[in-house]
Design goal:
Layout (H helix, E strand, L loop, with lengths): L1 H28 L26 H13 L2 H5 L4 H26 L7 H21 L8 E3 L4 E3 L3 H22 L5 H20 L4 H21 L8 H18 L6 H4 L1 H19 L11 H6 L10 H23 L5
Antiparallel strand pairs: 1-2
Helix pairs in contact: 1-2, 1-8, 2-4, 2-8, 4-5, 4-8, 4-9, 5-6, 6-9, 6-11, 7-8, 7-9, 7-13
Length: about 325
């Protein structure tokens, strides 16, 4: 199994790097440039025109890995990776529609918030139903990380909370994609965690382990083109796919609550945005942060006066994500062992 995981990691990286050599110039050729928020940091305006939809690079990379390195597992009936991949692809498709609308309108506005929410909710419910049907989910025994215990919950309540967790997490990952290399760098430790726990728990999680290792490699390959200064952005195509993959793995492993620690950066980013909006409305124009999400607050010198560079923020957030991935591993390693 160790050999397969190494092969998945390397293949994901190689496919992403080779694909990017062709795909990124093609995006430039068709003028698939990203429009930049006018209310964002002024220095971000220089990024206008950078190709978007670069997430296709790691999407194809992990798909290739899942269907090649993981083929024998799928053939033998281990469908976990297939379910997670399909779920992620559906979210990636929603992101693609959003990116396409932005490119067509030549502005940073794609699908309406209502349309995106409805589409994301439908996909979330479909995944939950499928995983429940296939025996991956057990609402009657919800796992509590760190305490290594389970509690029962009415199935209808479980589905409501689970759908909320999925849609919230997917959009939180999307919010994190605001600086060159940030979302990919924060998500790599998350999938290293998934690879490690699947490997530790044994044969029943083989295909999920291959998927996680393949996406880790794909993200490393994508960073060749996305790290500062970015040659392309992942776009909503990539960030929604990643959000779907992060959630899909947690639910396929039947421990969605691990996202509380594992997804700490996503939560910080989302909460900063929510708190900013609420405080702004309650105080008629005052702000907690210089700009939300939180990475922009640091970038603009909030609180300390020190204006963090993009590289510094990416390094900080990736380090925090790695620390909490280790903490999460310690908190759930006894789940199936």
């Amino acid at each position: 199994m160790t050999t397969r995981l190494i092969a998945a990691l390397i293949l994901g990286f190689v496919v992403a790097v080779l694909l990017g050599r062709v795909y990124v110039p093609w995006l430039r050729k068709i003028h698939a440039g990203q429009e930049i928020r006018e209310d964002g940091p002024t220095w971000h305006m220089s990024k206008a025109g950078t190709p978007t939809m670069g997430g296709v690079i790691f999407i194809i990379a992990v798909t290739v890995v899942a269907l090649t390195v993981g083929f024998t597992f799928i053939r033998d009936g281990d469908m976990g990776a297939v379910f997670v991949l399909l779920f992620s692809l559906f979210y990636g498709a929603i992101g693609f529609l959003d990116d396409f609308e932005k490119l067509k309108k030549k502005q940073n506005l794609g699908l309406s918030a209502k349309a995106k929410f409805i589409l994301q909710l439908v996909v979330a419910i479909a995944l939950l139903y499928l995983l429940r049907l296939e025996g991956y989910l057990t609402p009657e025994a919800v796992y509590i990380p760190f305490w290594n215990v389970t509690v029962s919950m009415p199935e209808w309540l479980y589905f409501i909370l689970a759908a909320f967790i999925i849609v919230g997490t997917v959009n939180s990952v999307n919010l994190t994609d605001g600086l060159d290399g940030l979302a990919a760098s924060v998500t790599i430790p998350v999938f290293v965690f998934y690879t490690a726990v699947c490997f530790a728990w044994g044969v029943q999680f083989r295909s999920l382990a291959v998927f996680a290792a393949g996406l880790t490699g794909g993200l490393f390959g994508f960073l060749v083109y996305n790290f500062y200064p970015a040659k392309c952005f992942m776009g909503d195509t990539g960030s929604l796919f990643l959000g779907g993959a992060v959630c899909g793995m947690a639910f396929a492993l039947d421990m969605p609550l691990i996202l509380v620690t594992l997804g700490i950066i996503y939560i910080i980013e989302a909460l900063s945005d929510i708190l900013q909006v609420i405080y702004f409305k309650l105080t008629h124009g005052k702000r907690i942060f210089k700009m939300a999400p939180f990475h922009h607050h640091l970038e603009m010198g909030g609180w300390s006066g020190h204006k963090w560079t993009e590289k510094q923020i990416v390094a900080l957030f990736a380090a925090i994500s790695l620390i909490f991935a280790v903490i999460s591993f310690a908190g759930c390693i006894g789940r199936y062992s």
